[in-house]
Each structure stands twice: as C-alpha cells, then as structure tokens.
Specification:
Layout (H helix, E strand, L loop, with lengths): L4 H17 L2 E16 L2 E12 L4 E7 L9 E9 L3 H15 L20 H20 L2 H4 L6 E2 L1 E6 L3 E7 L3 E6 L2 E5 L8 H9 L4 E2 L2 E2 L9 E2 L21 E6 L4 E7 L1 H4 L4 H12 L5 H15 L5 E7 L8 H23 L9 H9 L16 H11 L24
Antiparallel strand pairs: 1-2, 2-15, 3-4, 4-5, 4-6, 5-12, 6-7, 7-13, 8-9, 8-14, 10-11, 14-15
Helix pairs in contact: 2-3, 7-8, 9-11
Cofactor: Mn(2+); Mg(2+)
GO molecular function: magnesium ion binding; manganese ion binding; protein serine/threonine phosphatase activity
Keywords: Cytoplasm, Hydrolase, Lipoprotein, Magnesium, Manganese, Membrane, Metal-binding, Myristate, Phosphoprotein, Protein phosphatase
Length: 416
C-alpha cells in the first residue's frame, strides 16, 4: 500500500527526532493530569500526558484573577521542557510573577500600594519582555545552572487575558491559536533555527544550523534556560545562539471570540491549526467539559503518531460554541455506523481469528465513514472503536492502549 508523500515526510521527521532526542518508552504512559476552572467570563480546561517520552518535561500555568489589583485579568501558559524538567518547572512556578510584578508592566507604579490604575498596552508588552529576560537571568544564577549540572531549557507560550485584550508571548515552538467566528485568524510563530531571522542571529553569534537544529543539537532557536547556548561574549541576551526574548502579539477581544488553545509541539506535530480548531469546535457542540475535550485532543494526537510529551490548555470565551442537540444526535448516529461496520468486519472473521484493535482500525480506514469529527478523523474515534470491539468480542482483544496496537516507531500499526 502506498501512502501520501506528506506521511513519508512526517514519519521521516519522527525518525530523525528519535535519533537526536534519545530514548523512548516501550509503551506510552497515558495517564493524564487535568485541571479546570472558571471566572472573569472564561472557562478553561487542560490536559497533559507523558506519552512515549522517558520523562515528563512539560509544565503549565492557569490562573484566573491575578494579584496586584488585576483581579479581572487571567494568565495561561504551556512550557515544553527539554534536556530535563527543571526550567519548565521553574517557569510554571515563577514566570507569571516576574511578568506582572515588574516595574515596566506596572508602568513604574509601586505594586505594593495596591493601586487600581491598570497598565497600558505598551506597559504590558514591555513588561512581558522584561519579565522573560529578568527571569532567565535569575535562573542563570541557580547553583545547578552555574555548575553546568543542569542543562535544561524550556519553550514558553503565554496568554494574558484582560477585559479588553489578549496578550500573547511566545518563546520557542509551542504555539497559541485563537478561534474567532469559526476561523483561526491568529496563531503565534514557531521559533525554529531554519527561520531566516533566527538563522541569521545564530550565525551572527558564531553558530550554525545543521539538520534544522542549533549547532546540530537544539530544535528551537528561542527558549528559557539552555545557558550553554548563551555564552557568546560581546553579544546581548537577545543576540545569543538561543534567545530568551519572547515574540509578543496583541489582539483586541471580540464578541465573536470563541476559544484559545495553548499547546506544546507534541500536539502541533500531528495536527494543524485548522484541524485542531475544527476538532475542538465539533467537540464543544457535544460536551461542556473542556477537560474531556482536551483529553480527546491528547488521545487523538497519540493515535496520530505523536512521540512527545503533550500538553494543551483550552480557554473558552462567552462566544464559544454551545451544546447542540443536532450535533449530539449526529455523534450517536456516527457511533451506530461504526458499530455496524465493526459487526461486518467481525462477521467476515472466524471466531478463533486474532481480531485486535489495529486490524479493525485498518479495515475501517478503507471505508468512507460519514460524519467523522473534522480535524480528528477516525483517530479521534479510536477509543470508541475499542469499546465497541470489547463489547462485541469480550476477552478476544487486548486493551486498546497495549503496545501491540503500535509499531516500533510509535505509530498506530493500522497506518503501516
């Protein structure tokens, strides 16, 4: 069977990542960490999963109602660590405070006075950059960083939501996407070494870009930590091989704003902006649980072949899609169609045949199945297929997340 060239490129990219980034587990760790909250007219849910990686290096922040008089402001972030989890954990614990408490963010006002004068757009933008740079400087002085014992780093993608604006800050290749009126009018820009501006800075600092990595090693060109790449004499902090400078974007809030997604590259490796937005919108029509939607995204990305840690924060605005009786009905009809097709597959097998989930998924891929979730496709219904198969063939199949359902490269064997 032949596959589209885009698949070949994707699998080649995964293979290259495996060689460069190191070891993986024999089977993915699929336990999820979930959080949810609401306030300031927002709802949020999040999910994170270790997946195939030997260590969980992702971290996150989700705070509704900020200190220093910013009670109607909120802060959300995803941090994707590499070469260890120290820097990402520090980001989750301290970066927000470094941003909102510095003098630039507060417009030179003394935050200890509890003033209710709010920062201007320019204050916020300047304060975000100041917070990132000062925080990076603070981490550099940590004993394990000074000694070189810890060489970890982390991307950071943040969103500060005020009553009137959304401020985005991105440093690395985690990404934020805004869905407005059913479309994705905005996303942050990934900072990859091959980007012309990034490559020029790296070369000006005496480095090189090989196999799409800084000096053939690091896959991101901006990050917090990674201090071994920030020691070029005569260069400022934003001129180093790896820069801690965030790229900052500002969007005016709109009544047509639906939701905001922050996620690490473990999600974006296998889903495009449009696919993820379409999938989330379709799930919002059938469930009000943002945690459940995030879990479905993470599971779908695992089944699509993601080999990385995965973290996603989903923030819903008042204009988010609401439950739809029609959408719920169509989802039930889809499940019924899947069950009927699975019955057909089983009817063509002998009772003693080794029918497992990967075989059934492979057979279903050859069918034109109406009504599959946009952006998620059959991969997003894999758990449903597994549940149906267990019910129809009890004791005849392995658990739906057993290693047998995956190839050695971590892709579902139904794609081989």
């Amino acid at each position: 069977m032949e596959y589209p060239s885009s698949w070949a490129k994707h699998f080649a990219s995964l293979a290259e990542s495996e060689v460069v980034m190191g070891a993986f587990l024999d089977k993915p760790k699929t336990e999820k960490h979930n959080e949810a909250g609401m306030g300031n007219g927002l709802h949020f849910g999040l999910s994170s999963m270790q997946g195939w990686r030997v260590e969980m290096e992702d971290a996150h922040t989700a705070v509704i109602g900020l200190p220093h008089g910013l009670t109607d402001w909120s802060f959300f972030a995803v941090y994707d660590g590499h070469a260890g989890a120290k820097v990402s954990a520090c980001c989750a614990a301290q970066l927000m405070e470094h941003i909102i408490a510095n003098e630039d963010f507060r417009g030179k006002l003394d935050v200890s006075q509890g003033t209710e004068i709010l920062p201007s757009i320019m204050d916020v933008q300047k304060g975000i950059k100041t917070g990132f740079l000062k925080f990076d400087d603070c981490m550099r002085t940590m004993p394990e960083m000074v000694s070189g014992e810890d060489k970890s780093g982390s991307t950071a993608v943040c969103a500060i939501v005020s009553p009137t604006h959304i401020f985005f800050a991105n440093c690395g290749d985690s990404r934020a996407v805004l869905c407005r009126d059913g479309k994705c009018p905005f996303s942050t820009t990934d900072h990859k070494p091959v980007n012309p501006i990034e490559k020029e800075r790296i070369q000006n600092a005496g480095g090189s870009v090989m196999i799409q990595r800084v000096n053939g090693s690091l896959a991101v060109s901006r990050a917090l930590g990674d201090f071994e790449y920030k020691n070029v004499e005569g260069k400022g902090p934003c001129e180093q091989l790896v820069s801690p400078e965030p790229e900052i974007f500002t969007e005016c809030r709109n009544e047509k704003d639906e939701f905001l997604v922050l996620a690490c590259d473990g999600i974006w490796d296998v889903m495009s902006n449009e696919e993820l937005c379409d999938f989330v919108r379709s799930r919002m029509l059938i469930t009000e649980s943002l945690e459940d939607i995030c879990n479905q995204v993470v599971d779908t990305c695992l089944y699509k072949g993601s080999r990385d840690n995965m973290s996603i924060v989903l923030i819903a605005f008042p204009g988010a899609p609401k439950l739809s009786d029609e959408a719920i009905r169509k989802e039930r009809e889809l499940d019924t169609r899947l069950e009927n097709k699975i019955k057909e597959i089983l009817d063509n097998c002998k009772p003693e045949d080794d029918v497992d989930l990967s075989l059934v998924m492979h057979e279903l891929m050859d069918d034109e199945i109406e009504g599959l979730p946009p952006g998620g496709g059959l991969s997003s219904k894999r758990m449903t297929v597994g549940s149906i198969l267990k019910r129809l063939r009890p004791g005849k199949i392995e658990d739906e997340l057993e290693l047998k359902a995956y190839s050695p490269m971590g892709r579902p064997s139904s794609l081989l």
